[in-house]
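Bench log, entry 3. Co-assembly request; chain sequences pasted below exactly as received.
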Amino acid sequence: MNHWIIAPVILPALLAPIIGFVMRHDIPLARTASIAGTVVLLGMAIGLFAAAGGDPQVYYLGDWPAPFGIVLVLDRLSALMVLVTTVLALLVLIHAVATGWDTRGRHFHALFQFQLMGIVGAFLTGDIFNLFVFFEILLIASYGLMVHSGGRERMRAGLHYVVINLAGSTLFLFALGVLYSSTGTLNIADLAQRLREVPVEEAALTRVAAMLLMIVFALKAALFPAQFWLPETYANAPGPVAALFAIMTKVGAYAIIRIHTLIFGPDIDATAGVAETWLFPAALVTIAIGAIGVLGARHLSRLIAFSVLGSMGTLMIAISDFSPLATTAALYYLVHSTFAAASLFLVADLVVARRTGDQLVLRPAVVQNGLFATLFFAAAIGMAGMPPLSGFVGKLMVLDALREPETIVWAWSAVLIASLLTIVGFARAGSTLFWKSTTVLQDVAGHPDPLPDPIGVGRPAGAAELAPVIAAIALLVLLTAFAGQLVGYLDGTTAQLFDRDGYIIAVLGPDGET
Amino acid sequence: MEFIVASSVGTLTAAGIYLILRLRAFSTILGLALLSYAVNVFLFASGRLAIDLPPILSPYGDASYTDPLPQALVLTAIVISFGMTAVLVMVALGAYLESDDDRIDLPQAPDEDDKTDGEAAQ
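Structure output for the full assembly:
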């Protein structure tokens, strides 16, 4: 049994209370501990990623045999997600420290570590009730991070965010109750095994559970009709927190990939068609809302939030096909859109801190205008899916995978038109922010900064502040340059994902068939 | 027995949903609390309803027992929902203190469009 599998959950779980209780008044110490912990976590994630090549590896907590105890499962998909999470976390953390966001409220680093624990645990767990528990951990930490440093608008958006997610958690519990009462197990592999034997005529409760779980995950993934919380939340969250939240919607997407492929797979009679029927139209509408929102947004952070919504729609349209080819495309696009969204939020945070407000209106140009314009341009190209960055490769793969005659018209037109609208929206925002602003005189008296900004409006960004943004964009370049290798890995991942027997045997043992 | 449990879950859920849809933060919190009570009772019922039975297998051949797993799940769910309700109360209180209003959709400040992120960050 490989004990390293549980290490990325334990490390932040131990570190967070220590930071919270011991280092609460010592920001340099808390920063050091938090960054060191995240670097070690990244090392663990790389190690697990390297170790996850073969069959799924199982960690039995307390050494209880499989369907009775909780298990953690490390396979290629979970290793990839953990790696993406930790890389993103390190970038976001450096940004938060360099810009001083972590000093504008309390317990940023403790909450950040708890957030990492929840996300990593959700990716690693092989027990569906344990998935619920890790969801709650990442949510409760995200509530704290969301309202970090307070403010009226932020508290209002935070309240909505908390309420909608609490309602979602209750639905999750209802779904688990239904699932347990109809199958008598909560272990994902055992569920996958038992649902095969449920006859269609007795599958009503199981279908209810599958649909309820789908609604819960769609809520986390901000899929129509549960998408309305996302723009408000992301636009009002602190910049680095919004960048970290780029992985939060992906937790919902991961859960749909995992649960609705492994447990409620398309070829399982009892729940056939539950996910496919609803996911595709919902993804189409989500793409449309995202694109229209990008065009209509009057604030920079809201514009980016709507573009995240559109990217979730594109991701979901690929997932909704539930075929190996489309799932590979979805996973590639998932990795890409996480870093594209994060780089946009980080560069927007740097720009907004040097500008009076984030409305898209004419204001004097910010310091280092050319540099910020370049970074925004690159990140926006990535997000909108233009060549040469990885968004183009990702969208191309998604379109290539969706070739069935009945879906191709809808899927292709939605993705292509939405890409065009997103490009227009970003181009307009960028020209207002960076090009037209150079024609406005530096009329400081006419646009007085209403309140002293903690960063200082005119202060140029240092290397530490720019490094995470540049690293995120460099990752997009790497994703493009090494797309072949990544897709090779993802093909293996998808093959493993659709090899349900392999997962079941790895968890329950070869005699789990009985 | 089944009727009492089912109807109480239904009543609690209905009341919870009604309260969540209210416009005040306070009634929304009450609604979420009722909804979490409903789901706790519901989870109990997911292991089949049994009266006066121990949650352990008897070594004396008496096979009747009540399923212990839902009880463990309910305990976890109670702890989590209690903690979540506490967090929600704190967030709602913070929003109330920021704006002197517990409307769930706080009226936007008239100068919202001129609001800067610098202000929001204070």
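The CA atoms of residues 31 and 116 of chain B lie 34 Å apart. The helical segments of chain B are 2-20, 25-45, 68-99, 117-120.
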